[in-house]
């Protein structure tokens, strides 16, 4: 036979195996089957269809008799039209193992006319059956013989069966005779014939049960409409159920007889099967490659993609290729482990490829069963797992190429993101590789380096490490010093945003940065060496002197530092201070005024005034001391003049007291400390509060002023006063200065002022930076980030950072209602630009809605976990805030619904997930229907019970209770009547007693 013909035969056998597996499919609830065996043309197919109630079978005239025909083909003839599950055809012999593994009962069919006319018809059937069944004893009670096309004629059926029994006994006796010969060939055949015939001749109620007739029709028509055929079919089915015993089958119960030529082809067939497994493995590899391609194309994070390829995809492939043949393990077991490993790895990595897991896996398992079958015929047949895994070769090449490429991209990305290149980018804007890192400054910003196959290796050596990483992130260097030098006005705040790495390589300190609030947000920070940010408040100037010293001015409030990062390099290299400025010193109190000197006494002031006897004294305003006082007065006996001579020491007026010193001004209040907050988004609850806890640093108090010196008493004079009065004609007086004199007395000095005491109109420091403004900074950063996420390479890390900011527990506490409105405003302003760049905005709105709900839920119950929310929910305008939040929620929810209903280019539909959901819904519906039926029955039963109870209650109320009341009334009446009767009898008895007493008295 030519190689081509051999190949065709092997392929035909292999295809028949596949076709048989597709056609002979059994429901899980009907795994046990009955095998029908018979010689060609014995009517096996017609009989099986008859038992299965095929309503297309009908009887029609044919050659003076009747024959049975069906819809698809004419039954009968001498060539079998049935490929599956016929057993005894040359090529088909090899394919039947798989199809008989589930046999529980066996039906033998034989043409009744040939049974009687041909001596070899039944023995041939027995011979094939014996070669097929290894242990006839086990199955002898599970075999039913059907004589098909039985034409009884006018003979009774019982007599017809007796003739069959006699023929069977004759076959049995022939086998017994053969066994007497010690050199008999095929001893097992004759022993099985005896066992089989004995089993077929079993009687029940004087009737043979283990062989039956499938009669020839005598009338035209459909078989299922002919009463006799329908009744006989039911009887046959009943015999199969009741009289023919099912047997628990083992895989080695059946054997096969194949030709030597077929055995020679087994090795080739085994090779074809192993190659088919390899081909199927290749299909799986193709499916996985397409899956990985889709994942790679959809990826927006080259770093994560590189890690996935190295640590997931390639590791998975290594495990899949680790398949080894084990001793004493069946081919099917090896393949089952191989397929299970494929399924487990796909489940582990959540690879949803149903075709791979179901259809291809099942086909590979079928091939394993084919190899096991061939091994039963030829034990040398083995699996070749080393050839199966070759189907993964193309996938292996693809993943390794992808691994190298993305290692290359990540290395380039990291290289061009390094500080040295970012700081001196102009050195790398070159046109020749040799100038890399040494480029000269040029105004031509369009210069690009030209990389080609000739200078590629040279460029690799330049950039180190040895994989070229093109730069995808446009990282900007902000030269802070130049920015501040160019600024003419005071800067209140500084926002530094980065999309990749923020390099901190300069100090922020000095007067320009006093009180400046700084916000730094970037996924990665790198502190170069050691640097500091000194955002302390400034100190205030000394005030001028005043009466009472005024309080010092307040110190400057420090700026705040707010930083958000995902990774920070050299964290200890950055020093942050936000101390409030020292308060200004209070004014010194003013010195008290010197008191005025007292007025000098001059006799000129009184020389024209006389001292009147009526106490008119011109010296009354001055302090005086009388040193001589002599008066000559006339009397009646000696009339004459009145002469008065006095000498006075008259002092000058007292000086004024000195003025009090002014109180020293109180030292100015220290400025408020700023806050320092560092938040790591990689950990949802990680935040570091470095705010200084020092108290405010007040300024030095002013010194109280000195009290003023008292005024000196005025100078005095010693004067004489002479007064001569001789009435009525003479009245004259004179003042004469004797001398000047100075007492040297001074008035009291003023009191000294009190140090650091005057706080009148003292000023408070300016309020510190409000925390809710951090939310505004975060919103600005999110807007800045979203502007740059249309690049697929940068998109992944940026979206991840955005999501981490959204969901960080501490960051959410920086928001209040105004902060949330500001975020929505920014998102809406960017909406059309983002849509235009095919950015999926739905996740941003969904995240925002979630945070609005969290904000309300965490604070609406009065437990204000967010201190800024407390102002919203406890203020006089709290109802306005609640309405605003309701509006915010409704607006965003409407937006989300709109986005979900519009078919956008980036919409992804999980069809499998959708169908799974539908399937679950149907199952739930079925369960719901059952539950509804149960509930309806329960409700109906409950209603019936309630109606019965109501009827009973009505019967009791309308019948029983009324009757009881009537009986009760009658009883009451009878009791009352009985009581009246008793009372009457008691009275009568009392009357009798009285009469008896009277009689006793009379007799006495």
Automatic annotation (TrEMBL):
Residues 754-765 have a biased composition (Polar residues). Keywords: Coiled coil. It comes from Gigaspora margarita. This is Uncharacterized protein. Residues 580-590 have a biased composition (Gly residues). Residues 575-607, 746-765 are annotated as: Disordered. It comes from the Eukaryota. Residues 968-999 form a coiled coil. Transmembrane segments: none annotated. InterPro entries: P-loop_NTPase. Residues 591-607 have a biased composition (Basic and acidic residues).
């Amino acid at each position: 036979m030519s190689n081509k013909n051999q190949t065709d035969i092997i392929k035909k056998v292999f295809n028949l195996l596949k076709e048989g597996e597709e056609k002979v499919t059994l429901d899980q609830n009907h795994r046990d089957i009955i095998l029908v065996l018979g010689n060609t043309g014995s009517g096996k197919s017609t009989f099986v269809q008859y038992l299965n109630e095929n309503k297309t079978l009908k009887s029609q005239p044919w050659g003076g008799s009747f024959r049975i025909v069906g819809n698809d083909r004419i039954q009968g003839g001498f060539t079998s039209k049935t490929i599956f599950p016929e057993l005894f055809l040359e090529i088909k012999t090899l394919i039947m193992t798989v199809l008989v593994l589930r046999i529980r009962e066996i039906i033998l069919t034989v043409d009744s006319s040939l049974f009687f006319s041909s001596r070899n018809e039944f023995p041939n059937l027995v011979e094939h059956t014996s070669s097929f069944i290894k242990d006839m004893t086990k199955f002898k009670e599970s075999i039913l013989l059907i004589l098909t096309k039985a034409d009884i004629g006018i003979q009774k059926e019982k007599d017809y069966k007796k003739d069959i029994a006699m023929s069977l006994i004759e076959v049995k006796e022939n086998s017994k005779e053969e066994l007497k010969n010690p050199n008999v060939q095929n001893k097992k055949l004759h022993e099985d014939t005896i066992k089989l015939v004995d089993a077929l001749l079993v009687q029940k109620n004087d009737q043979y049960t283990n062989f039956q007739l499938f009669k020839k029709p005598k009338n035209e028509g459909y078989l299922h409409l002919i009463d006799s055929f329908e009744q006989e079919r039911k009887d046959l089915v009943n015999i199969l159920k009741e009289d023919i015993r099912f047997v628990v089958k083992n895989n080695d119960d059946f054997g096969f007889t194949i030709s030597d030529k077929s055995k020679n082809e087994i090795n080739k067939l085994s090779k074809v099967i192993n190659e088919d497994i390899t081909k199927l493995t290749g299909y799986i590899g193709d499916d996985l490659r397409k899956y990985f391609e889709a994942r790679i194309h959809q990826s927006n994070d080259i770093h994560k993609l590189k890690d996935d390829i190295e640590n997931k995809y390639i590791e998975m492939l290594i495990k899949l290729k680790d398949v080894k043949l084990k001793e004493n393990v069946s081919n099917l077991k090896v393949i089952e482990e191989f397929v299970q490993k494929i399924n487990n790895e796909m489940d582990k990595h959540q690879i949803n490829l149903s075709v791979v897991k179901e259809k291809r896996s099942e086909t590979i398992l079928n091939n394993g069963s084919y190899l096991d079958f061939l091994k039963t015929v030829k034990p040398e047949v083995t699996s070749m797992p080393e050839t199966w895994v070759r189907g993964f070769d193309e996938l292996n090449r693809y993943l390794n190429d992808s691994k190298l490429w993305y290692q290359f991209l990540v290395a380039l990305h990291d290289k061009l993101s390094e500080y040295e290149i970012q700081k001196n980018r102009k050195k790398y804007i070159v046109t020749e590789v040799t100038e890399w890192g040494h480029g000269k400054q040029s105004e031509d910003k369009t210069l690009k380096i030209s990389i080609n196959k000739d200078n590629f290796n040279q460029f690799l050596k330049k950039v180190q490490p040895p994989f070229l990483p093109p730069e995808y992130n446009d990282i900007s260097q902000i030269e802070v010093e130049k920015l501040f030098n160019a600024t003419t006005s005071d800067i209140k705040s500084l926002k530094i945003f980065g999309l990749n790495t923020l390099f901190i390589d300069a100090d922020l300190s000095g007067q320009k940065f006093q009180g400046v609030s700084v916000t730094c947000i970037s996924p990665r920070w790198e502190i170069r060496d050691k640097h500091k940010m000194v955002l302390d408040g400034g100190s205030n100037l000394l005030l001028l002197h005043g009466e009472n010293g005024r309080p010092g001015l307040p110190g400057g409030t420090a700026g705040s530092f707010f930083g958000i990062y995902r990774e920070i390099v050299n964290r200890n290299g950055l020093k942050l201070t936000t101390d409030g400025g020292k308060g200004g010193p209070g004014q010194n109190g003013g010195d008290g005024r010197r008191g005025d000197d007292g007025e000098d006494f001059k006799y000129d002031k009184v020389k024209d005034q006389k001292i009147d006897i009526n106490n008119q004294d011109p010296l009354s305003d001055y302090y005086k001391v009388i040193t001589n006082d002599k008066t000559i007065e006339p009397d009646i006996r000696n009339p004459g003049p009145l002469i008065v001579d006095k000498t006075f020491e008259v002092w000058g007026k007292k000086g004024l007291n000195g003025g009090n010193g002014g109180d020293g001004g109180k030292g100015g209040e220290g400025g408020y400390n700023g806050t320092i907050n560092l938040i790591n988004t990689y950990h949802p609850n990680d935040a570091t509060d470095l705010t200084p806890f020092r108290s405010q640093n007040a300024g030095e108090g002013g010194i109280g002023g000195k009290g003023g010196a008292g005024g000196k008493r005025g100078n005095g004079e010693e004067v004489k006063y002479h007064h001569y009065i001789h009435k009525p004609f003479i009245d004259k007086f004179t003042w004469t200065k004797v001398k000047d004199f100075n007492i040297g007395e001074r008035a009291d000095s003023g009191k000294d002022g009190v140090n650091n005491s005057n706080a009148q109109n003292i000023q408070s420091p300016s309020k510190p930076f409000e925390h809710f403004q951090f939310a505004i900074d975060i919103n600005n950063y999110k807007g800045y980030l979203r502007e740059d996420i249309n690049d697929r390479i940068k998109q992944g890390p940026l979206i991840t950072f955005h999501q981490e900011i959204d969901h960080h527990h501490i960051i959410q506490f920086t928001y209040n209602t105004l902060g949330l409105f500001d975020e929505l405003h920014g998102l809406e302003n960017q909406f059309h630009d983002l849509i235009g760049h095919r950015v999926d905005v739905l996740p941003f709105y969904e995240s925002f809605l979630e945070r609005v709900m969290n904000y309300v839920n965490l604070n609406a119950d009065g437990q204000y976990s967010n201190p800024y929310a407390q102002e919203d929910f406890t203020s006089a305008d709290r109802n306005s805030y609640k309405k605003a939040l309701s509006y915010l929620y409704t607006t965003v929810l409407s937006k989300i619904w709109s986005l979900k209903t519009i078919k956008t280019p980036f919409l992804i539909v999980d069809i499998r997930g959708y169908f799974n959901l539908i399937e679950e819904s149907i199952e739930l519906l079925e369960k719901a229907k059952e539950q509804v039926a149960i509930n309806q029955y329960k409700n109906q039963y409950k209603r019936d019970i309630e109606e019965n109870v109501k009827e009973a209650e009505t019967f009791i109320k309308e019948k029983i209770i009324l009757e009881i009341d009537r009986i009760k009334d009658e009883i009451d009446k009878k009791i009352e009547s009985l009581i009246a009767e008793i009372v009457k009898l008691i009275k009568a008895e009392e009357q009798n007693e009285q009469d008896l007493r009277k009689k006793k008295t009379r007799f006495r």
